[in-house]
Design goal:
This protein is of the alpha+beta class and 486 residues long. Helices cover 36% and strands 17% of the residues. The strands form 5 sheets. Strands 7-6-5-8-11 form a 5-stranded antiparallel beta sheet, with no helix packed on it. Strands 14, 15, 16, 17 and 18 form a 5-stranded antiparallel beta sheet that branches. A hairpin with a 7-residue loop joins strand 6 and strand 7. It is flat. Keywords: RNA-binding, tRNA-binding.
Amino acid sequence: MTGSDPSSRSALATLTLSSQNLASDPLLALIAAISPPYQTTVILSKKKDEALSLLTGPDTLTHRNAILRSLCGMALHNALDTLGSSPALFLGGHSAPSFAGASPVSALAMAGISSWMSVASSLREQGKEEVAVLIGQLNEYFVARSFLVPSSGPTLADFDLYLAILEKVSGGPLDEMVGSNVHTRRWLEQCDASLKDLVVVASKNAVFSKIPIPTLPQGLEPKARPLPVFFYGDEDASQVAEVASAAGTAVAAAAASSSDKSNKSNKADTNKATPAAKGGELTDEQKKAAAEKRAQKNAEKAAKKPKADAAPATTSADEINISALDIRVGKIMKAWEHESAEKLYCEEVDVGEESGPRKIASGLRPFYKLEEMQGRTVLVLCNLKARSLVGFPSHGMVLCASNADHTSVEFAVPPEGAKIGERVIFEGIEGEPEAENKVAKKKMFEKLAPDLKTDENGVVVWKGHKSMTSAGSCKAVNGMVNAQVA
């Protein structure tokens, strides 16, 4: 079956893919459906093992990320990156200027899109812990940015990373994981809304493309935001407070139960008998009634507060510190390439346990050669629950320092002379590590990881507290400064 007439002479590219590709890759399905049919021939094969490919003139692309970037850019003469002819600027509007000579900003943006898509590919091979760390990193990244690269809207990179996150965690669990990371939440909500708009466009094109419309995973449920109350600037503080009090009284009255109707009726009669002050201000009687009501509410709130000697029902994030994590000195005794995950190394790491070395998988193949892994002394986070990474049983995490876009990664290492199995502590912080189940249930690593960094000297710190062993402090192996450690 073809998405457009294969005999069309105007087609510039031929995309060959299987139904399995469409079902497992909603972004690929959307791009294929939105691509102009007079420029793209889409061959949808019934073979499950049909290789994904894009034929453009004499060249054939087979790498998924390269195919998506090509479809959004050069392969179709930038039809999906031109304002007015595309429902979104999939490359941020940075590909079209290449005909006249790309600007430095556009060149960096195009490189950034490629890098962020590589991050998305790597994330798909990792677990929820890595997603939680990334959410915290993105929150810092988006403090001064709207999207991953300079653009007026989400680009191909934003959509790809967003969908990679949703493959690991979505809906309610994602909302809980995002928590108070407001900048990441804003970005997630914008990507979700933009993707839904693209689905509408793809649905209209389905009449011609014959490509099934993908079902998007569940993103965040946008939270209701109250409408603002406007003032003209000539009110004094008491007037503003009175307006707020009157608004609160009106809301409370609307939500009251039917058993209070008689009392409210009496109060209403009293208010009717008292004329309102000029200019819409509250009368003395109304002010007094509002003050009494506020006093009653404050008394009720005080009664509901737990007593000082009562134990809190839950442990807040502020009461958790880095001592909850069991970070130890380890040594990689053996390392080999994962048989099916191109980003992963499999390792046996000695952390001083009688049971022998632990098996740990790490996404370090893009950053270290295999011979650089063997015999390396590292820091290992040990009280994480064991999990399967692409079929490999991984129990722990080798800690590394990385920059914001995860293009540069360095081992976090103990000083020379530190003992294998020795626990890493942080200056001025005492406490014993928590059990693996509690760390997972309370999401302790996700809460603590955003503050685990290197300082201006490359030393591993948590909220400014230096990491220490019996031989001294721990550092990024090449001295990477102000980097995230995870």
